[in-house]
Amino acid sequence: MCGIVGYVGPRDSQAILISGLARLEYRGYDSAGIAVIDAAGDLDMRKRAGKLQVLRDDLAAHPMPDGTTGIGHTRWATHGGPTDANAHPHLADDDKLAVIHNGIIENFSELKAELLSLGYTFRSETDTEVAAVLLGHEYQASGDLVAAFRAVAKRLEGAFTLLAMHQDQPGLVVGARRNSPLVIGLGEGENFLGSDVAAFVEHTRSALAIGQDEIVAITPEGVTVTDFAGEEVSVEPFEVVWDASAAEKGGWSSFMAKEVSEEPDAVANTIRGRVHDGQVVIPELEGLDDLFTGIRRVIIVACGTAAYAAQTGAYAIEQWTRVPVSVELAHEFRYRDPVIGDDTLVVSISQSGETMDTLMAVKYARERGARTLSICNTQGATIPRESDAVIYTHAGPEVAVASTKAFVAQITALYLFALHVARLRGSLPAVEAADHVRELEAVPAKIQRVLDEEQAHIEQFSRWMADTQSVLFLGRHVGYPIALEGALKLKEISYIHAEGFAAGELKHGPIALIEPGQPVFVLVPSPRESAELHKKVVSNIQEIRARGARVIAVAEEGDAAVLPFADEVLRIPLAGPFFEPLLAVVPLHIFAMGLATAKGLDVDQPRNLAKSVTVE
Ligand code: M6R
């Protein structure tokens, strides 16, 4: 989960590398570094522990010669702490070779022992330096960076994207990938490599996706892609749909604030082009009807917030398609020998499309004969390319580590998927399906109303709660995953203890946590749409209130039943039961952001985390 960028061309590369790293910093921010081959043909390198700004300041204070071939890295530490020495690039071959890496090389100890026995020495604790030294060793043998890569890639176990350049071969950057992302950006007389398109989107929108176990060599004139055996392979071109400015803060105080404000657009853009005459028809799924008509079971795999989107969507998928649906954390799924086969559709959800646990779950499912569909926000990512079909969410680039707009887009995509499959299977009366479509289409404007009418109130109220030590979240039915999402968001960016519970579970243990003053958010179902559930949740509120809880109810407009028992009521517009979560989550996102901001924390780059978890 590091960010990687490479450049060859006529321009000085430092600025290109640094701005690429700025766009990739969401992938990791423990350290940053760059290396360039300067005009004199020497390899120069600078790396610093800490966020990219530390490197920027260092380069400003002590400029380094510039050059037209360069690589850059922003790190999320795995092997070795976040120190200058462990930062990338790592040098080898008498400091003429620079290497950067994303992933984990599982057999690095064996390789290191072998290299130590050959007399090599190491300056860091990283697995990357082992790959660098091995690459230097192989380069010594062949004098050819691509050939050296081929020899090294075959010996590495685990997941890796490696980029390297050698001062004896200026104008060349070579990369290899296995189970870790790498995309190519095609320019005019210049070419780029990046962990994702954000690395180069300000320079070109023309991209190539590299497959598994492939090696790419870029020069200013062209790109060559071969497999690990050296056979040339064809690559899939694609046009980046994101605008470079979409990944800029654009006057907002944080990317998270910007992305929360984009939640209405994320839903609207995900729906766009997929509703025709009141019916959902997903063009990307055209010709794949048998993928959905023959299945007897759906398993959704995902991690973190994406898994809560899965849990939310599962209710509608099962109800509308009448196909049994289960949701599993991707990292648990493949270690329990699940019963799956060609009648199972495994749906993966991932904003980044690179989450290693989710990718491995998809591969596992495919190997066992299951059909696979991915719901993904990032073009050219690995998970959609490993799946039989993909539904892209069109949330636009999500930069803040805390996932917000992607969450609502994922639920939207699941509803579209459910309605598409329900139409194919004839499991939902057309009138009912059309009602759901109308409800879904009304969601963006309703989210906008929550933002317009509640944001200032919630922000003020989150400031009052800045000293809170613990917050609980309760929900039932589709409100339950929203409670989990509310708790995750708060933990993640405000470092406050938070737990989400199914409200019905309260009396089975968690109610013991309630003491006077304990803040509890309660997701209250609509009394019009879900009278039975509403009554139960109001009873739950009374139970915790009787024990001194401070109740913050998220309830629909006009629900007066909660008023006598709630200390605060956050209002959401009226919506059908499946659509409430898309509205109710918005106050929780605003609250987490408001509270973290009140504590003076960096909401975009919370400690210990990275946006894209590309290690298991
Ligand atoms: O890129 P993905 O959607 O696969 O990421 C999954 C989780 O790592 C992610 O949702 C994480 O939980 C978020 N940081 C939560 O806000």
Q: What is the number of E strands?
A: 26
CA-atom Rg in angstroms:
25 Å
The level of helicity is: 25-40%
- Poorly predicted ranges: none
Chain-averaged pLDDT: 95
Q: State the fourth-level CATH superfamily of the largest domain.
A: Glucose-6-phosphate isomerase like protein, domain 1
Strand order of the largest sheet: 3-2-4-1-10-9-11-14
User: How would a textbook summarize the main sheet?
Assistant: 8 strands, antiparallel
**CATH architecture annotation of the largest domain:** 3-Layer(aba) Sandwich
Give the C-level CATH assignment of the largest domain. Alpha Beta
Number of domains: 2
Helix/strand-derived class? Answer: alpha/beta
The CATH topology of the largest domain comes to Rossmann fold
Count of DSSP H/I helices: 17
Proportion of residues in β-strands: 15-25%
| Distance separating the two termini | 10 Å
Bound molecules: 5-amino-5-deoxy-1-O-phosphono-D-mannitol
Overall 3D form? globular
Keywords: Aminotransferase, Cytoplasm, Glutamine amidotransferase, Repeat, Transferase
Catalytic activity: D-fructose 6-phosphate + L-glutamine = D-glucosamine 6-phosphate + L-glutamate
Enzyme class: transferase
Main location: cytoplasm
How does the SSE layout of this entry go?
Layout: E1 3-8, H1 13-24, E2 31-38, E3 43-49, H2 52-61, E4 67-75, E5 90-92, E6 97-105, H3 108-117, H4 127-142, H5 145-153, E7 158-166, E8 173-178, E9 183-186, E10 191-194, E11 206-209, E12 214-218, E13 223-227, E14 236-239, H6 255-261, H7 263-271, E15 275-276, E16 279-280, H8 289-293, E17 297-302, H9 304-321, E18 325-329, H10 330-333, E19 344-350, H11 356-367, E20 371-376, H12 382-385, E21 389-392, H13 405-425, H14 430-464, E22 470-475, H15 479-494, E23 497-502, E24 519-523, H16 531-546, E25 550-556, E26 568-572, H17 580-598
Parallel strand pairs: 17-18, 17-19, 19-20, 20-21, 22-23, 22-24, 24-25, 25-26
Antiparallel strand pairs: 1-4, 1-10, 2-3, 2-4, 5-6, 6-7, 7-8, 8-12, 9-10, 9-11, 11-14, 12-13, 15-16
Helix pairs in contact: 3-4, 4-5, 7-13, 7-14, 9-13, 9-15, 13-14, 14-17, 15-17
The structure holds 5-amino-5-deoxy-1-O-phosphono-D-mannitol (M6R).
